[in-house]
Amino acid sequence: MTTRKLALAALFISLSAIGGMIKIPLGIASIALDSMPALVAVLFFSAPLAGTIAAFGHLISALFGGIPLGPLHLIIAFEMWAVVWLFAKLHQAGKSWLKWAAFIIGNGVLAALPFYFLLSPAFFYASVPGLVIAASINAGVAALLMPYVLKVHGVSFHAS
Question: Which of 30, 131, 21 is nearest to 83 (CA)?
Fold first, then answer.
């Protein structure tokens, strides 16, 4: 990895940390913009690296929030890695609409599924609406920013 790419990845992780500080309470969950930079990062990085940005972004966001779920945040970080990895793969394949739906469903519903069994069904059902809203806001902000990031970077945007 070149120094330039490493610096850019560090910038996206830092943006995830800043987004993680922006918390809007919503039931037992909170909305933060910690995954939005990782979604934008797919414009510049491979799927594994974009996923790594998302995982670190979540861990830093959890740290700012006082780590309420303790070591379970490692599971969530892995889930964030997987969801953004899939998002990046769909983006690279030109699946414009599918990538957004996959991110929102993956981050908002599927990522909460292990907690149905690990914590309780009540936790799952209480957290899913907030997580879907959070994923939708992160996706929406990323979708709005991506054309401008590409324009500044000097690449034309082709509705992906």
Answer: 131
pLDDT digits (tens, 9 = 90+) for 136-159: 999 999 999 999 998 887 654 444
Helical residues (DSSP H) of the chain, grouped into ranges:
3-21, 36-41, 47-64, 72-92, 96-108, 113-118, 121-153
pLDDT in tens, 31-88: 788 899 999 999 999 999 999 999 998 898 888 877 777 888 899 999 999 999 999 9
Tokens of 43: 């414009």
- Token pair in block for residue 37: 């930079």
- What is the sign, positive or negative, of the torsion defined by CA atoms of 115, 121, 123, 129? positive
Query: How many angstroms separate the CA atoms of 159 and 28, rounded?
Result: 35
- Crossing angle of helices 121-153/96-108, nearest 10°? 150
What distance in Å separates the CA atoms of residue 152 and residue 126, rounded to the nearest whole number? 40
Give the sign of the dihedral formed by CA 21, CA 27, CA 29, CA 32.
negative
Measure Cα distances from 27 to 36, 42, 79, 105, 127 in Å.
21, 30, 21, 19, 7
